[in-house]
Specification:
The N terminus and C terminus are likely disordered. By secondary structure, the chain is mainly beta. The protein contains six helices and 52 strands.
Length: 698
């Protein structure tokens, strides 16, 4: 009986512990003293001031300099070296040994000489607080490289594969399965992984590993003089086998700077959270990863991952990453922030995704959607409670084009819902994404997220596809979006919000250009018919359509706000007069130019409509500030104050009197006529309803 009672008590204690763990106390919430304040409204200059201050604070919280510096170089010696710059140590293994003996708060910098390459099979894993992993030496030399890629071995062991022209083979060396091969260390030269020998034979620039015979086959890219012979070529083949993490830090106020990681976490199965450069910060611990690079990785290349935990504050600053292996599920995300229990804070500042998914026989690079530049999510529903990310800011980030580029813009999931712009804590600002006309399917808007001042071009949509799906809301502001509609027959839509759900999309001051390619294409801005999605806010946008097929915008639901937009090449359907919020929309006869500031005489000038929620729109995609509290032009770019003829910072009747006194060319057509006077009148009368043929509805 006593044993049974003890067992009962143990079960009760375990259940109590579990309940406590699933309560707020064990989720790793960030202490209030370290938490970022609530951001100002994103469309005001105050947001930029707030963010710059937060970024400077985050960088300063994890300094590079430490009380003790230990140096490593390929000329060093683990036995005789002292760790000074004059007598450095040598290996990552020795660095790990030193880390293991440090106190919990280390205040130590591990410095690696620029120009050197560390080819080791185990990277660095640091849990101590206040540790720096960085570079030293000649700033003109390349950053130090950590990589498990090693030369394939004795070149004399290569031989031509019988009956397979262009294919070479060699014994792999019985050192375990090969997970990737490089023909050269040039990042622009990429080999494709082939599941079969026949696939390797038919694919120039590929490799295949036969585990049964432990044989490596390669079909090299040709050299300048023709087919390449690996026995004599300048290029040297490198191979990597299953490895773990490259560089991992998790201690408070730790920093990784100017380190390049290549080839970490590449396994034969779907990889775990083991990547090139990793922050595993939790519980409000602060980590900075600055000027680092990570290539040839698992499903991610550079991450903040609070796996099985919550919280953590990580700042990625001017980093680069790319080339992840196919993971067989939802696709690869190059930069990633993940907090299982949520409440993390992550910044990606001026980071670049150079490539997406590595090519392989497992997916078709010409058609398949693989690779997202930046992504974030949390655990979702945990213990009956929805767990969401905390603050996320991605600013000035770029997803580069190229043959292996990511085909998805950045995206964030598991965000705290924000019905007001002032409540938002997730921002993608000044992002540049240049696609290659492969299809995209991630939303440009997401619940609680602000995507602002972005440029998204050369994207494609397929049949019965919605770019902003029914469970999304959030804000798309000051962006330029260019889409090719490749569907031959059937509908494609920009957004769709289910009337039964309390979500709504807010599209404000964007420029959309849609190109249909086939007469059967039916493009709709809003999928809902006959009216627009419930509660949608579509204000001050430019919608342009060219090509065959149809393009429509359904409007008229009583709760919608569809105002101050310009349409070119669209059919406007639905009960436009039924909605009091359908106002000041115009139809254009000439397609507006993308990325251009509207001229003073343009129909786009001085027509902008304040939104019903009252949020000011004081900045545009170029960063121009409109101090009066609301921009005057439709689209993502503000016009110059060319109608302010009195130079008093206001546009009013005094400017019209000034024009009568001294007429001038305001439209840029080389003439001084009634069009110039009308440009001033429109500016003065901003906010009135038009009574000319450009009007649609009242």
């Amino acid at each position: 009986m006593a044993a049974r009672n003890r067992w009962t008590i143990l079960v009760v204690l375990l259940m109590t512990f579990k309940c406590l763990y699933l309560s707020s106390a064990a989720y790793g919430f960030i202490p209030e003293s370290r938490r970022a304040s609530q951001p100002p409204v994103a469309t005001t200059p105050q947001w930029g001031v707030w963010y710059e201050s937060l970024l400077a604070r985050r960088l300063a919280e994890a300094p590079r300099e430490r009380s003790v510096s230990i140096h490593f170089s390929q000329d060093g010696n683990d036995q005789t070296g002292t760790g000074s710059a004059d007598a450095p140590l040598r290996t990552l293994a020795r660095a790990q040994q030193i880390v293991n003996g440090l106190p919990a708060t280390a205040d130590v910098a591990l410095l690696f000489r620029r120009g050197d390459v560390w080819r080791e099979q185990v990277g660095l894993s640091v849990s101590n607080a206040e540790v720096t992993i960085a570079d030293y030496g000649d700033a003109n030399l390349p950053k130090p490289i950590f990589t498990p890629f090693v030369p394939a071995g004795d070149r004399a062991l290569w031989s031509a594969a019988p009956g397979l022209p262009g294919v070479w083979r060699r014994p792999a060396g019985n050192a375990g399965p090969i997970t990737w091969v490089r023909q050269t260390e040039d990042l622009s030269v990429v080999l494709s992984r082939q599941a079969t020998l026949s696939g390797c034979a038919s694919t120039v620039g590929s490799w295949h590993y036969d585990a049964a015979t432990d044989t490596l086959y390669v079909h090299p890219h040709p050299g300048a003089a023709g087919p390449l012979d690996p026995r004599t070529s300048v290029d040297e083949f490198f191979v990597v086998r299953p490895t773990s993490v490259g560089v991992m830090v998790r201690g408070d106020r730790s920093r990784v700077e100017n380190i390049v990681a290549i080839g970490w976490g590449m396994r034969t199965t779907t990889p775990s959270q083991e990547h090139g450069i990793n922050s595993f910060a939790t519980n409000g611990d602060r980590v900075v990863i600055a000027h680092c690079e990570s290539y040839y990785g698992s499903s991610h290349a550079m991450v903040h991952a609070a796996s099985g935990a919550g919280g953590g504050i990580t700042t990625f600053y001017h980093c680069k990453a790319g080339y992840c292996q196919f993971n067989g599920s939802a696709g690869e995300t190059i930069f990633n922030t993940y907090s299982f229990f949520g409440e993390s804070e992550t910044i990606f500042e001026s980071c670049i995704t150079v490539a997406g998914t590595l090519p392989s026989s497992e997916w078709d690079i010409s058609t398949t959607r693989r690779g997202t530049g930046f992504y974030g999510h949390a655990g979702g529903l945990v213990g009956g409670v929805e767990r969401n990310l905390g603050l996320v800011v991605m600013r000035n980030c770029t997803i580069l084009p190229g043959p292996f580029a990511c085909v998805q813009p950045s995206n964030l999931n598991d965000l705290p819902r924000a019905e007001r712009l002032a409540d938002a804590r997730a921002f993608i600002v000044n992002e540049t994404f240049t696609g290659d006309h492969r299809p995209v399917d991630l939303p440009l808007a997401s619940i609680g997220m602000v995507r602002m001042n972005g440029s998204y071009t050369n994207m494609r949509m397929n049949n019965q596809q919605v770019l902003v799906s029914f469970e999304q809301s959030g804000w798309l502001i000051n962006c330029t979006v260019e889409l090719t509609i490749a569907v031959r027959s059937g509908w494609v839509a920009l957004y769709f919000t289910r009337p039964s759900l309390p979500f709504r999309i807010r599209m404000i001051a964007n420029h959309f250009r849609f190109r249909t390619q086939n007469a059967g294409a039916d493009f709709r801005i809003d999928l809902n018919e006959p009216n627009s999605s419930a509660g949608s806010v579509v204000v001050n946008n430019i919608f342009s359509h060219t090509g065959p097929g149809t393009a429509r915008f359904n409007v008229g639901r009583a709760g919608d706000e569809v105002a101050g937009n310009a349409f070119f090449g669209f059919t406007l359907a639905g009960g436009t007069a039924a909605s009091a919020l359908w106002r000041r929309n115009i139809v254009l006869t000439i397609e507006p130019t993308m990325f251009a500031v509207p001229s003073c005489g343009s129909p786009l000038a001085n027509l902008a409509q304040p939104t019903a929620d009252g949020n000011p729109l004081m900045i545009d995609a170029a960063g121009t500030v409109h101090s009066s509290g609301w921009r005057t032009a439709i689209g993502p770019r503000e016009i110059a104050l060319c109608a302010d003829l009195t130079l008093d910072g206001r546009i009013d009747a005094e400017d019209l009197f000034e024009f009568e006194r001294q007429p001038r060319d305001l439209t840029g057509d080389g003439l001084i006529n009634a069009d110039d006077r009308r440009a001033v009148e429109l500016a003065v009368r901003r906010g009135e309803m038009f009574a000319d043929p450009l009007s649609v509805g009242r």
